[in-house]
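Subject: Sanity check before I submit

Could someone independently write out the structure tokens for this chain? I want to compare against mine line by line before I put it in a report. The sequence has 257 residues.
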Amino acid sequence: MRTRADIACWLTDMDGVLVHDNRPIPGAAELLAQWRDTGTPFLVLTNNPIFTRRDLSARLARSGLDVPEDRIWTSALATAQFLKTQMPGGSAFVIGEAGLTTALHEAGFIMTETQPDYVVVGETRQYSFEAIAQAIRFIGAGARFIITNPDATGPTPTGVVPATGSFAALITKATGKEPYVVGKPNPMMFRSAMNQIGAHSENTGMIGDRMDTDVIAGIEAGLHTVLVLTGISDRGDVEQYPFRPDEIVDSVADLVQ
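---
Independent answer below. Compare away.
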């Protein structure tokens, strides 16, 4: 049986694991320092496609966490990489923010409003009726439908707001076409992350705070899974699922040696 001692590389979720409401979770800075000091390959993952790596690195720095840009992997980056492998130099009609458009641009994709190969929907606070209507028309005309992540809602200081999954559902209702989801819980996101650091599933661990995304995707990707109780899921939630993480710990502080 694989144990934590067998793990040489780590993937970790960000919100609920390292930070909460832009405050560092106790033990997060120490764990990141431990990985740096020991030369342990790692990536910080997020399903949020709004921000670029640079944005997220700066946000974490303001929280007191030192995470270089190249140690961050987002659903936007995973989506761009996926599309690059599917259709190099393809075109897309994009609903999203800088994190997504920058990733697609760097992957060689053309953003267009004329006969796109793909309609790509990500997180944004600027959804417009016209953009959604245009996406529906393009999909009806044969464009392939991709979304960065399935989250139906997202948190804000004033409460939850509709997110990628909610607007994708609207488009699906209008077109009858289901999107392909690249981000968690698709294990593809973890596999693409492992490729970035040259990791293998046999010796890679995943730390997350959600049973329905982090843990299930980690299991399906063949990783050692660690659930922390500083975010969404608690011990009671674990009993509701037909699968279990390899470890349950109170927080990342329990992983510091």
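---
OP: Matches mine. For the report I'm noting this point. The longest helix spans residues 75-86.
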